[in-house]
Write a structure and sequence with these properties.
By secondary structure, the chain is of the alpha+beta class. It is about 40% helix and about 30% strand. It is built from 6 helices and 9 strands; from the N terminus they run ααβααββββαββββα. The N and C termini lie far apart (about 55 Å). Mean pLDDT is about 75; it is low at about 1-30.
Length: about 200
């Protein structure tokens, strides 16, 4: 019996090969999974404990003191302890960890347990992304959400690897996150697949 799987010229599946063609950006976008990553700094729990202690001291001064040594000094002590405690608690709990999400449209950064502060950067505003092997709080003047005129903006929760977004307005946005090299690859691929965009050099 004759095998009809090949045509006269020996081509297999002519009807399928004609429909295949080169992959389109839409095909690549469908294959691009959402990337998520995070970074954690457990050391800041110690600072959070110190903040809780300051807050407790302020409450104890307000409740247990006989208020006989003068009103103004006591009020200043109570307010100072409570304010310092709240600032330390928020500043540490908000930046104990950072969560990063990248998809075909935007990059989103959420800080702390309640996700505040939160930053969303559309990839249409991004020119390129670079891997940063070592980001330190010293470079940015401390932990947390930082801004320096000559460097840009950063979210720094620990020292170590991160990535740097180069934005279309000339600014940069730096994030410390685990497996930052994978984040850079995903961002660059998303930029390459975006309509009208070319792959970063």
């Amino acid at each position: 019996m004759r095998d009809h799987s090949k045509g006269p010229q020996g081509h297999e599946g002519d009807e399928n090969t004609g429909a295949a063609g080169p992959p389109s950006p839409a095909d690549g976008a469908a294959d691009l999974a959402v990337w998520t990553g995070r970074a954690t700094n457990r050391v800041q729990w110690l600072l959070a404990a110190a903040g809780a202690a300051c807050l407790a001291l302020g409450v104890e001064l307000a409740v247990d003191n006989a208020w006989t040594s003068g009103l103004a000094p006591l009020v200043m002590a109570v307010v100072g302890c409570v304010a310092a405690g709240l600032l330390m608690l928020y500043g540490t709990l908000a930046f104990v960890h950072v969560a990063v999400r990248v998809d075909m449209e935007a990059l989103e950064v959420r800080c702390g347990h309640i996700g505040v502060p939160r930053t969303r950067i559309p990839l249409s505003h991004v020119v390129d992304a670079d891997f940063a092997p070592r980001v330190t709080p010293r470079q940015w003047g401390g932990w947390g959400y930082r801004w320096r005129p000559e460097k840009g903006t950063a979210v720094v929760v620990r020292r170590g690897e991160g990535f740097v977004l180069r934005l279309g307005d000339g600014r940069t946005f730096t994030v410390t996150v685990d497996d930052a090299e994978s984040a850079v690859r995903v961002i660059r691929r998303a930029l390459r697949l975006a309509p009208g965009r070319k792959a970063p050099a």
